[in-house]
Amino acid sequence: MKLTVHPIQPVRKRRTVALPPEQAFDLFTSKLASWWPLATHSIAEVDAVDVRFEPRVGGRVIEVARDGSECNWADVLAWDPPHRVALAWHPNPEPTAATIVDVRFTAVDGGTQVDLEHRAFEELGVADGPAARAGYDEGWDPVLDDFAGAAR
After folding, report:
1. H-only helix segments in the chain
2. In terms of DSSP bridges, do strands 60-65 and 84-89 run parallel, antiparallel, or are they unpaired?
3. What is the pTM of this model?
4. 66 Cβ partners below 8 Å, 6+ apart?
5. Are 100 and 123 in contact (CB under 8 A)?
6. Is residue 107 left, alpha or beta, with left meaning phi > 0 and alpha meaning psi from -120 to 50?
7. pLDDT, tens digit (0-9, with 9 covering 90-100), for 99-146
8. Which of 85, 92, 103 is nearest to 143 (CA)?
9. All domains of the chain, ordered by start, with CATH?
């Protein structure tokens, strides 16, 4: 059930990396902790020490804090290596709803085009959905820049 009848436009981002799709997909998922900016894009912030990706439908993306505590960021909805991964995204200690992060990997000359679509912000409600969309529209850029940097 959606909390609003007014759809909120998805956030769409694209990066091209000089890796084949298999390596780009692996970097984005199983090697997430090697490039994700945990100090600025996590729940525990400076106390975040790791992020793990469980590679299967029904798996989770889990942040690990210095004290060993864990927080579930997302649940894996689609797992199709090396083409696509989709997540029910809810990085909050007490999530009330999830948005969808859908990432596709397409072979192009010289590497892989990575297309990220973050949608379903209306699930967060009339008050929170637009603000969340604005924050992610800005926030995905440095995250994906770090991913592209790690791919070099």
Report:
1. 21-28, 129-151
2. unpaired
3. 0.94
4. 44, 47, 48, 49
5. no
6. beta
7. 999 999 999 999 999 999 999 999 999 889 999 999 999 999 999 999
8. 103
9. 11-151 (3.30.530.20)
